[in-house]
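Colleagues,

Please find the record for the two-part complex below.
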Amino acid sequence: MVRPPSLALFVAVLAASPAMSAEPTMSFESATTILAESCGKDIDANCFGVNLDATRLKECLSRNQDVVSPQCRADYFRAFDAIQKRISARSAVWRACEREKTKVCGETQGKPGETIACLLKAPTKSLGWGCNQALTQAGYR
Amino acid sequence: MADFATARRFLPLLAGLLTMAVFPALAQEGPTAETMIGELSKLETPSDLDVPALRQQVADRIKAKADPVALKRPLISPQLNRLPHVNVDIQFNPDSPIIRPESYRTIARIADVLTNPALMSFTFLVVGRVEANGARRDNNLMLSQRRAEAIRDALVTTFKVSSKRVLAVGLGEEQLQDANNPKAAINQQAQIVTLHEVAQAAGSGAKPPEAGRATKSATSRSAGKAGK
């Protein structure tokens, strides 16, 4: 009894992809607006000397959990998480579209912006499912 | 009961006042992302702007006490204004490089813009400026440098824009936007300037600077370009 490798691969791909249906991740601006609206006052009150640095702000807000506003407590993790999701979604494009990059856009493509522009211009049908998903999740379309 | 009725009557008013108090600060200010992308992608000829030399030039002018009067003080770098650029209002704590939470959104918008496919292949300069506020010129220079670096650091640490793609320079009160009104708030706007295209990695193995480590040759090449 040998499990067909294609099925194993399919399951692995499914498990690795964050979602079945591709939803674009939030833009940096939208995610950061949540942070500023919910936590602006708390940052002023408790993290006065801390600059806009995800690691340090997150650390400061969690250290001050007891005193930050309920709104901020409810939202800050979500906001930083959304920023991280977009960063991951964007770097995932290069792995997900590796084959398409050479096949559709030619090997000589060097500039990252041109490669993405080429992938976005290519008919969706010419790109694999994973690459299409990744482009959507990255917020490129 | 009366208290409840009063509260109910005033609640919408209070909500309105709160909205007015909160939203002006958070309202979308300055150019939209689309406008910024349009402006910054207009690079026709790559700039040969020498950033370290500019830093030296501005320090020398202050040290030599040249152009002592702020009114109509000439630009230290007219070339900067000829490159594609956008001016952005970023609020800092007084006399400090700490970005105010009201301006987080603008910084995030810049990050969205710089990581847009249309601009992904370019290198940018963040220019910090301070209005001629009566403080010492050298202090203003230092403050503007720290503020420009704070903007750059936020882009690099929080939004993972490649550190190789963003340089920072402070020009104090030596690059006044409105030299006829040296104290005007417009003179403290930061500027994002398109410099040139990123050094291209050899062959097809090009990854965006955001996605991974550049090759050694690309690193040395871009460092060479930045240090020109």
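The first strand of chain B starts at residue 85 and ends at 88.

Comments are welcome before we finalize the supplementary table.
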